[in-house]
Amino acid sequence: MLKFILILFAVISTTFASVNGPCSGRSGICIDSDKCSSVGGTSFSGKCPSDPNNIKCCDSIPCSANGKSGKCVFSSQCDGESVSGKCPGGTDFKCCLGKTSEGGSQGGSDSGKTSGLYFGACRGGGGACINTDSVTCDTHTVSGKCSGGTSVKCCVAGSKPSWYIRQGDYKETVCTIGGKNKSVWTSGCGIASLTMGIAVTTGARLNPTDLFREAYKKGYYTGDGLGHDAISWVGKQHGVKVSWTDNIDSVYSALEGGKGVIFHVGSENKYKFTTGGHYIFLKGAKTQNGIKKVYVFDPNGGNNYVNVLFALKKSDGGIQVAKRGRAGGDFGIVSKA
Questions:
Q1: CB crowding 80-115: b at 16 or more within 10 Å, else e
Q2: Closest CA to 65 of 90, 35, 85, 38
Q3: Is it true that domain 161-337 has CATH number 3.40.50.1440?
Q4: Which pLDDT value is given to residue 190?
Q5: Could you state, in order of their start, the residue ranges of all structural domains in the chain?
């Protein structure tokens, strides 16, 4: 029995050896998600596959030393001064006061300035990190929730309108595929976005679970998410037309005119809407300092990108960069059928 226990311990130790090690596919360290939250970092799933479920990739951990602000990274990722004892994990995970291998200042310069417009979600959610030297916040800003220079602050999210749909509120099973229960919560970002589109277009307040079930019964859902054809078909059943396009000027004009837009996004490093494929809803537009901006309502809600104003065009550092790249276009303009 003792021999068996020792062998089992050796197997477990080998399996979980990467705790406190680097994440897979991004900077950061594999630590307990509660610990990550306590040090001000942001947790990312799927980047520490060899570890227990509570161990996730913790990135964007702020730190300070010698009167300067910085970011916690592994020593090999820091191009400049690094200080021990300021970050979680092992001795090789340190506070970098220079630049990281990802590029971009970490706020160690005397001016505290930084380049770029947007820096992902605020720590703990609730808005987006913006460079206040370059873009304007539509609500108000809060310091201490973003990594970067002193000009990078959290632009707090706006209020949730009555038509906003959070897919996590709809957990009723629609079907079971491959032994896994599927619901709006697990697979219904597209239907949740369409439900919002129907509400702002026709005034009808529908249950996204019912719409998801319609798509499944029609054969549009087989376990890999809903395509553009499925969303367009369901919309037609409820009095709206979804016109897919990549013409960014048409998208802005539609939003400026009061229409809603379903946006199919893919994985990218700026906004981090998704690590795979996802749909978000856009409603409302305005121009600030010559930059065309739109309001994002993410049905996932995990990053709290709800009623947050972002630049639209890729040339302005906007959300167009997150395009999925599907035939026919990734922006679905919703109008009355």
A1: eebbeebbbbeebbbbbbbbbeeeebbbbeeebbbe
A2: 85
A3: no
A4: 97
A5: 18-105, 114-156, 161-337
* Nearest to 24, CA basis, from 2, 55, 46, 54: 46
Distance CA 306, CA 298 (A): 6
Q: Whole-prediction pTM value?
A: 0.67
Low pLDDT (below 70) residues in the chain: 1-18, 25-27, 79-80, 98-115, 302-303
Sheet strands side by side (includes 62-65) = 62-65, 68-74, 93-96, 82-83
Can you tell me the distance from the alpha carbon of 299 to that of 193, in angstroms, rounded to the nearest whole number?
Answer: 7
CA distance 270 to 318: 9
Average pLDDT for the chain: 85
Closest CA to 195 of 242, 158, 126: 242
Nearest Cα to Cα of residue 44 among 59, 34, 64, 32: 59
Burial 151-180, CB ≥16 within 10 A → b, else e: bbbbbbbbeeeebbbbbbebeeebbeeeee
